[in-house]
Structures are given as structure tokens and as C-alpha cells.
Amino acid sequence: MTREEAIDRINDLLDSADPQTANTSMRIPRALRDAAALAVRELDVAPSTTILTANALRAMLEGAVVMAALELHFEQYPEARPSLADLAVAAAELDGHPLAQQPEFLRRAAGEVQQRHPDASPEDVLLWAEAVQSCAASREGAA
Amino acid sequence: MNEIVLLDNEAVRALRDPAHKKHRHVIGHVLNAARRTARGLQVDVGVPTAVRVEAGWDRTAAAWAFVNRLRIADLPLGPEHADTAAGIRKRTGVSVADAHLGSAIQSAREHVTVITSDPGDVRVVAEGRRVEVVAL
Asked: pTM of this prediction?
């Protein structure tokens, strides 16, 4: 099975309306199972541990399969891969963050963050940029 | 609160075409949505079907295989959407696709972001509904 075929099959399965359920012999850490049961019973995070597990698994798979499809695309078109700065600008746009109006400032912030933290996320960049802006405003206020 | 990112005609075209000057921009939004979804912060990406028609997106065509893999949901023009869209079109004079986009914006229960080449039209069809507009 090629990766493309695997992605297509996973997408088909995720979109399936088949209501059939199956018992699994999946082994998970006992402490995790107990934590999930407690969270369902005491914190109402989901109607049941089964639903909690299925929802978490679905969310993970839905995100992962898209990221896998994009990775395949980037292998063919490396220039299509967004930089950390691109992703930080996109994250600001998605959130309606005021810094979305200052893309060049965000791009500089991404460069600064990436120098120290090569695995930084777009949200890390936003936080850093906010902090830099806040410090600058405080200095101006004090002056 | 869950989020939904809606694509307009130009956003769909940009996503489809690696040579499009906004391809990486739209890809960035799809990637961020996927990253957040995998972390449990559901961010859906959707396209009104009338927009899909306008963009020429045929899900059965091999040329659209890459875009088909990105889990971009169809928002169909069902009876309720059709009524809302008809009202928007009558009031604003926009195209059918833009009216459908407007009905999708107005009926969404999630926080809505629209990626578009025409921010002005999006604000018109939103008719006051709060929406984040990402200009291509």
C-alpha cells in the first residue's frame, strides 16, 4: 500500500457512517485508563470512557492524516512548505489576533524564536511577539 | 469553542495550484487547522458546494486528488441554506457562490474564519455576523 493509498483509506474510514463497533485488545497504561474513568465520572469530560477515547483518537487521526497528505505534497513541492513565520502569521489571522496586522513584525519574531528554539510552534511565536510588544510599550510608558 | 475555516473560490484555486502565488498561504492555514485538530482543538475546514462548483473542484477528478486528501468538508446547499442564500442574494446582489458562502457564515455555530480574495464581499454577505476575514 502506498502512502497515498493509506491516506485515502484512512479518510474513507474516518468518513464512514458505519455504526458497527468492535471490541479491541488494545493495551493502555492502567493509570491512564483510571485517569480517564475518573475524568468521565467526576469532571464530565465525556459521556463515557469509550466516547472519550474514540473522540480523542478521531481528533488525532483527522489532524494526522491531513499533515501526512501535506508532507507528501511538500516532498513533491518543497517551496509549498510554509515557514514558521508563515504559520505564525496564519495562526494570528485564524485567531483574529491584532498582530495579524503586523506580519513583518511577526516574521522578525519568528526568526528570533527559531534561533533559540528550532522546534517552536506558531503559537510560541505569537506569545513571544506579544511579550516583545508589551515590553516595548512598558519602556515607552516609563520614559 | 470550535472553529471553522471557510474557503472562497480563489482560496480553493490557490490550494489546488502549487504555482499559485497564494498557495503557501492557504496551505499554512490548512496545516495550522490540522495541527490544532490533532491537539484536540477542533478546527474544521469547509467549502460551500456552490463555491466548489465555481472553482471547478470535481472530487472525482484526479487533478483534485491532493485537495481531496485535506479533509475539507462540503457545506451543501440544502433547503435551509438555499433560503438564506436567496435572501442574501436578493438583498446584496452577490453571486450565487458568494450568497452560499454568506449562508454558511450566518448559520455556523463555530467561530468562523473566511479565506478570500475579496474581503469586502465576505463582509457584505456576513451581514453583521462576526467573522475573521483573511485576505489573499
From this structure: 0.91
